[in-house]
Structure formats: structure tokens, C-alpha cells
Design goal:
7-stranded mixed sheet, Rossmann fold, alpha/beta, two-stranded antiparallel ribbon, 8% strand, N-(1-d-carboxylethyl)-l-norvaline Dehydrogenase, domain 2, binds 6-phosphogluconic acid, Single alpha-helices involved in coiled-coils or other helix-helix interfaces
């Protein structure tokens, strides 16, 4: 192979193939690599012009055909595979080469790999890539962190392939070390939260308003034309219109109600717990996928308990109420994820710019939404805003929708319709906006049974009481 290529990509699954074709479409020459000869062949055929996009099975031939410094991106499953690919590439790399992990790697793995590769003179960084297969092909949102010098070398390529929002590329250098993977992890946590909300809304509209799939299609479509405009609402509208090609029914009604997960939502929740930052709208989304997986137990339990008969609500009123509760919960879910990012930034030294993150989420990624333009402005106006709920520009949006969330959550509780994402968002809001919470009692109990001490409202210091049992 005489020709040298601008960009290399390891892992020619759907995401990898689409990403490399996107690179080639944007005027760069690109070379793919995969151990599977069929995937290599598929890319060569789809690329159509081997001067522009080509692929090889052998790692040595791959490395040899890349221009210096090599710019190689891995799009392989997170975990051990990433380490295996790194080891297979290493003997063929030179100092100054750039290696990018575009998968959903756990952030501490990225830190470990960056330190390991830095010793060998390789610029390594993690870059979250969001947007699924279509995004990879037509323009994803890209979240790079780590080696700044490494990023500078691929910046023109990433800016060309990324989705554009009003002409601005949805990619930006986010911070040192694993900042890119961390931001992508929280993106996915928010994604879990928003997907959970979307499913609850579907449930209540169906059960309390008896909306048909066609009506659901139109309702989501209408919402997507308004303030709830987002990728997830848009695809949900389309999902309700899809017919089953294995039968006559609507496809949605034939799909098993057990949601799978690959772990990024769970990692977001786990890490939020480690940081001490509450993200209950994300936590419950993970728990609901877990509950959904317990189908057999759910089926038995269903037969053991009576459920309330579901009261029917006027369709128009229900749609209006649901839209407001949905909007409220969308805001609160983003608020929690961004709060986590702000705290993680301090804890891990990422120096994140939250406005910049919201900006690159405005197009290309799974959680893209109209709301992100407002969120960007809120964090541009106050770069150290701890929580979106404290932004003056969000008060009227939240104030105008919270009472609908209260009404819907109460309705769900009375009628046995689980709305945990909306209700956790509401509870979070009610707690976060309370000057006084009853946790003074918890402090008293801790001190009572374990002499754990407490602080007082009226004076500084740490106190302990010899509590007297009075029977
Ligand atoms: C994206 C998605 C992508 C992937 C999810 C799915 O931004 O393009 O988040 O990364 O589809 O990780 O995650 P689960 O399988 O855990 O639902």
C-alpha cells in the first residue's frame, strides 16, 4: 500500500464503519482495521474508492499505511478488548502518535491507559461519541478529553465529522485525563433518565387516557414541535407508527417489556453516590430497568395483589398535564446530571465548562433537545452555577410546570400507575428547594444510638447529648 492515510480506525462494527465513512466524506483519507475479514471487505465495498477509504486485517500493514503522526481511533467494546487492541497496536506505533478510545470506557480505565501510554510517548485520549449508528455516519456529538496536544492533531477531522448546530461543530476539548469519557458517562445517565420519563408518559397516556398508538404517535409528534423538541421524543413518535413486519399488529405492542443495559447509567449512579451528589431521576431509571428484567416475578406478584381501578381522564386534559410534567422532569433530570458534572470537575480536576458541554449536546447526540440551547445560555450567564434550578432563567419554566407534575404523580399513586422518574424528579425538586428538611431527626438518632454527634442551628461546634431513655 503506497498511499498513506490521514486517519485510522480500529473496529469496523456498525459504529466504526459509519464513522470512517463520515471521515472520508469530509475529505480525509481513512483506513480501517478489523480482525474480521468480512468487516474489512464490507467497508472496502461500501467505501467504493480505496484511495479514499480502505481497510486491512493486519495490524502492521494498517500502522504502516498511516501518515505521521498516526491518528488512530478505536471503536471497540469497552473493557478488556480496549487493552487487547492497545497491546496489539503498540509494537507498530511511534512516539508522538495519537490513539483515541471512542467507546464508552469507564473513566478510571481511561486514566490508567493514558498514564501507561504517556510513558511510551503515545498521546492517548478518550472521546465519547454519541448519536448511535446514524450519528456516526451523518454527524455525532463528540466529547474528547485527555491529551490536549493529541486532540489538537485530530481537531480538524473531528470538527469536520461532528454534527453541526447552527454551523457550530458539536465537539470541543473538554478537559484533561478522562474528562471525555466521564462526560459521556453522565450523558448516558441523563439518557437513561429521559428514556424512563418517556416510557412513563406513554404508560399514563395509554392507561388513563386510552390513547391508541396512532394518537400516541401524534401526541409525541406535536410535543416534538414544541418546547419538548428532542431526539428521544422524535423517535418515540416514530416508534408508535411502526407496523410489525412479522404480523399485523403495531410493533411496539409486540416488544418484550424487559429493558437491557450495558452499564453506563449504572456507573453514573454509582459515581454520583461516591461524589455525594444526588441524581435520583437517573438512579430510578437504572432501577426500573432492573425491575423490568424481573418479568417472571412481576407476573406472579401481579396475580397476588389487587390494583386500583384506573380512573379515566379527559384526553385533552391528560395530554396537557402530561406535557407539563414531562417538561418539568426533563429539566430536573438535566439539572441533576449537570450538577454531577460540576462536582466531578472539582473532584477529578477536569476543569469542565458546563456551557460548552451543553453546547456540544445541542445536536448529534441522543439527549439533544431544544432545552439545551436554554441550558447553554444559563451556564454562559453564570459559569459557576451549581445547579440549573438556581438559574434565574429557569425559575419560570419550572414554576409553570411543577404543579402539573404534582397532579400527575398524585394521580399515578392513587391509580397504581408507577411514575417513578417523574415522582423522583418532583421529590428531588421539593427537597432541593427546602430550606429546612427533617434530617435534624436523623442526626439526633445517630447521636442517640451511636454518639455520632450533631451540629446546632444556634451555635458553632460539634455536640453530643447523653440522651435519656424515658419509658
Ligand atoms: C449514544 C448512546 C450509546 C449507546 C448506549 C446504550 O450516546 O450514542 O448512549 O452510547 O446506545 O450506551 O446504552 P444501554 O445499552 O446501556 O442502554
Amino acid at each position: 500500500m503506497e498511499h498513506t492515510y490521514d486517519f485510522g480506525l480500529v473496529g469496523l462494527g456498525v459504529m466504526g464503519r459509519n464513522f470512517i465513512l463520515n471521515v472520508a466524506d469530509n475529505g480525509f483519507t481513512a483506513l480501517g482495521n478489523d480482525l474480521d475479514p468480512q468487516k474489512v471487505q464490507a467497508l472496502i465495498e461500501e467505501g467504493g474508492n480505496t484511495e479514499r477509504v480502505n481497510a486491512v486485517v493486519e495490524v502492521s500493514a494498517f500502522a504502516k499505511a498511516l501518515s505521521s503522526p498516526r491518528k488512530i481511533m478505536m471503536l471497540v467494546p469497552a473493557g478488556k478488548v480496549v487493552d487487547i487492541v492497545i497491546e496489539s497496536l503498540l509494537p507498530h506505533l511511534d512516539k508522538g502518535d495519537i490513539l483515541i478510545d471512542g467507546g464508552n470506557s469507564f473513566f478510571t480505565d481511561t486514566d490508567r491507559r493514558e498514564a501507561y501510554l504517556a510513558e511510551k510517548g503515545i498521546h492517548f485520549f478518550g472521546a465519547g461519541v454519541s448519536g448511535g449508528a446514524e450519528g456516526a455516519r451523518k454527524g455525532p456529538s463528540i466529547m474528547p478529553g485527555g491529551s490536549k496536544a493529541g486532540y489538537a492533531a485530530v481537531q480538524p477531522i473531528f470538527e469536520a465529522v461532528a454534527a453541526k448546530f447552527e454551523g457550530e461543530p458539536c465537539v470541543a476539548y473538554l478537559g484533561p485525563k478522562s474528562a471525555g469519557n466521564y462526560v459521556k458517562m453522565v450523558h448516558n445517565g441523563i439518557e437513561y433518565g429521559l428514556m424512563q420519563l418517556t416510557s412513563e408518559v406513554y404508560d399514563v397516556l395509554k392507561k388513563a387516557g386510552n390513547l391508541s398508538n396512532n394518537e400516541l404517535h401524534h401526541t409525541y409528534k406535536q410535543w416534538n414541535a414544541g418546547r419538548l423538541q428532542s431526539f428521544l421524543v422524535e423517535i418515540t413518535s416514530e416508534i408508535f407508527a411502526e407496523k410489525d413486519n412479522l404480523g399485523n399488529a403495531d410493533l411496539i405492542d409486540q416488544i418484550q417489556d424487559k429493558a437491557k443495559q450495558k452499564g453506563t447509567g449504572k456507573w453514573t449512579s454509582q459515581n454520583a453516590m461516591d461524589l455525594g451528589i444526588p441524581v435520583p431521576s437517573i438512579d430510578i431509571a437504572v432501577s426500573m430497568r432492573e425491575i423490568s428484567a424481573l418479568k417472571d416475578e412481576r407476573t406472579i406478584a401481579d396475580s397476588l395483589y389487587d390494583r386500583p381501578e384506573i380512573a379515566q381522564m379527559d384526553k385533552e386534559k391528560l395530554i396537557d398535564l402530561t406535557e407539563k410534567a414531562f417538561y418539568f422532569s426533563y429539566i430536573v433530570t438535566y439539572a441533576q446530571g449537570l450538577h454531577q458534572l460540576a462536582d466531578a470537575s472539582r473532584e477529578y480536576g477536569y476543569n469542565l465548562n458546563i456551557a460548552e458541554i451543553a453546547k456540544i449536546w445541542r445536536a448529534g447526540c441522543i439527549i439533544r433537545a431544544k432545552l439545551l440551547a436554554d441550558i447553554t445560555k444559563a451556564f454562559e450567564a453564570d459559569t459557576v452555577l451549581p445547579n440549573l434550578l438556581l438559574s434565574p432563567s429557569f425559575i419560570s419554566k419550572v414554576q409553570g410546570s411543577v404543579s402539573a407534575a404534582r397532579e400527575l404523580v398524585a394521580f399515578g399513586a392513587l391509580n397504581g400507575i408507577p411514575l417513578p422518574g417523574i415522582s423522583n424528579s418532583l421529590t428531588y425538586f421539593d427537597a432541593y428547594t427546602s430550606t429546612r428538611l427533617p434530617l435534624n431527626l436523623i442526626q439526633a438518632q445517630r447521636d442517640y444510638f451511636g454518639s455520632h454527634t450533631y451540629e446546632r442551628l444556634d451555635r458553632e461546634g460539634v455536640f453530643h447529648t447523653e440522651w435519656k431513655l424515658k419509658n
